[in-house]
């Protein structure tokens, strides 16, 4: 019984980690796209300031 419980806990933990990874990937990609769009659309902030942020979030997404 104890082995089954520990196996279920490990499966649950793995599922939570995968869910978190998926969430982080979607968040990083969304932020990268928003910063990139913002740098093209709004004239408030220059591209030289927002483009590195977009690439930073894209880098995080690719590393995950």
Structure description:
With 64 residues, the chain is mainly alpha-helical. It has 2 helices and no strands. The longest helix is centred in the middle third of the chain and has 40 residues, at 2-41. It has one domain (2-63). Helices cover 89% and strands 0% of the residues. The two termini are 35 Å apart.
Unreliable spans: none
> What's the total helix number?
2
- Beta strands, count: 0
What percentage of residues falls in helices of 4 or more residues? over 70%
Transmembrane segments: 40-62
Keywords: Membrane, Transmembrane, Transmembrane helix
Characterize this entry briefly.
The chain crosses the membrane at residues 40-62. With 64 residues, the chain is mainly α.
